[in-house]
Design a protein that fits this description.
The chain is α+β, with helices and mostly antiparallel strands. The protein folds into 2 domains: 347 residues, Outer membrane efflux proteins (OEP), CATH 1.20.1600; 75 residues, no CATH class. The protein has 9 helices and 8 strands. The strands form 3 sheets. A 4-stranded antiparallel beta sheet has the order 2-5-7-8, with no helix packed on it. It has a two-stranded parallel sheet with strand order 1-6. It has a two-stranded antiparallel ribbon with strand order 3-4. Helix 1 runs parallel beside helix 5 and helix 8 runs antiparallel to helix 9. The longest helix is centred in the C-terminal third of the chain and has 68 residues. 32% of the residues are buried.
């Protein structure tokens, strides 16, 4: 009668254990990547990285444009025209047939003085490029952090699947022991029912762990730009605890967030000087030459045509423009003050995050050792309870409790290892370099 009552449970176990395998057989095998490969792929495909690289390129082009403002502006032109209308010779009043008319011109202009605006713009563009470079470094480590979190999350879920499989195996063994003892009259019906419930709970836990693993592998695939599940290849080497004193000493000097904010302050300060240049006069010089004729031109200078040229020296000074200069000055000063406040807050933010992550890293490192000791203790406790139950000196509930404690200790051990890795990755993202 016992075997008949347990038969539905066994059937359920068969379905539960075979379903993931059948689904995997029908689907595509996950792509295996290492952490270094995952980071390389994500840096190539993540939109935030593409945007940060584009901002750096735009900043570089802006600085070249600021340097170009010191150079003259040169343009040239050439034309050839022919009309179907006859024309009259003004000297003889004879009708002349249509002819081609050729022309060429060259013009150049140079700003000699603009109230130091070009120098201010050059400083602003240089600071903007520094800010973009710091932003690119910051985004690189933020993307690396997100990739490491997805990678370690997939590794942790894979280990939790193995923990769930071990839990199912222990529960199955315990159920067999309970059935054997019940058939021998050494256990009660309650023991077999409790073992059945424990096995069902273990199977549900395994199913949830497998679902979490599939979700984590899909998220890792999206992070590295792959349209399939990605399996993280584990690295058994656990990095050591870094020198926290040296990290704190150099963090505020090398943190990309701080460097970016300070560069933005310099750019805003240069814009203040650029706004002040409106109070100064501007001086420019220009040259223009044109040559026109009807004969075949001698390229490229149209040397066989008479030349018409002009030089122009210009001076302009805005004495009053309805307080627009004052408004620009105030806006630039406000932007500079805001940037300075944001830079100070960024420094405080990095300092606070550094304190938090150093504490989290130290705590996670201690948790690894504690979790290992807890697993060893829980393993021994389960062994003792299994032996006590086998000889009739302990209850089945004590054994189930010991088994649950071991499973939780193994879960805590997995979480402790990857909490340490993620805390280390977060610390690297803050300081802007590998530890």
């Amino acid at each position: 009668m016992t075997s008949v009552r347990l038969h539905p449970v066994a059937a359920l176990a068969t379905i539960v254990l075979l379903a993931p395998g059948a689904a995997a057989a029908q689907g595509q095998q996950p792509l295996e990547v290492t952490l270094a490969e995952a980071i390389r792929r994500s840096l190539d495909v993540q939109p935030a990285m593409v945007q940060a690289r584009g901002a750096a390129r735009n900043a570089g082009a802006g600085e070249r444009s600021a340097w170009g403002a010191f150079l003259p502006t040169v343009s040239t032109s050439a034309s050839a025209s022919r009309s179907n209308q006859f024309r009259f010779d003004p000297n003889s009043t004879q009708q002349l047939p249509p002819v081609y008319t050729y022309g060429g011109g060259l013009s150049a202009s140079l700003v000699l003085f603009d109230g130091f605006s070009r120098f201010a713009n050059l400083r602003a563009s240089s600071a903007t490029q520094d800010a973009a470079a710091a932003g690119l470094v910051n985004q690189r480590y933020q993307t690396t952090l997100a990739t490491q979190q997805a990678f370690f999350g997939a590794l942790a879920d894979e280990e939790l699947v193995r923990v769930g499989q071990a839990q199912v195996q222990r529960a199955r063994q315990q159920l067999q022991i309970s059935v054997n003892k019940f058939q021998a009259g050494a256990a009660t019906r309650s023991d077999t029912l409790t073992s059945t419930v424990d096995l069902g709970t273990a199977r549900l836990t395994l199913l949830q762990a497998q679902a979490n693993l599939a979700t984590a592998q899909a998220a890792l695939g999206r992070q590295i730009g792959v349209d399939q599940l990605v399996r993280a290849v584990p690295d058994t080497t656990l990095p050591p605890l870094p020198d926290t004193i040296a990290v704190r000493a150099s963090a505020l000097q090398s943190a990309p967030l701080v460097n970016q904010a300070e560069a933005q302050v310099r750019a805003a300060g240069a814009q203040v000087w650029s706004a002040r240049s409106q109070y100064w006069p501007s001086v420019a010089i220009s040259y223009n030459t044109n040559r026109t004729g009807v004969g075949s031109p001698e390229l490229p200078l149209f040397g066989n045509y008479p030349e018409t040229f002009s030089w122009r020296f210009g001076f302009s000074w805005t004495l009053f423009n309805g307080f627009q200069r004052e408004q620009s000055q105030v806006s630039a000063s406000v932007a500079r003050d805001i940037a300075a406040a944001q830079a100070a807050d960024a420094r405080r933010q990095v300092n606070a995050q550094l304190t938090q992550q150093l504490a989290a890293l130290t705590t996670a490192n201690a948790q690894i050792e504690i979790a290992g000791a807890n697993v060893a203790a829980a393993t021994e406790a389960l062994r003792v309870q299994q032996e006590r139950y086998r000889v009739g000196a302990g209850t089945q509930l004590d054994e189930v409790t010991a088994e649950a404690n071991l499973t939780q200790a193994e879960v805590n051990q997995v979480q402790a290892r990857y909490n340490y890795r993620i805390a280390r990755a977060q610390l690297e993202a803050i300081v802007g370099h590998a530890l």
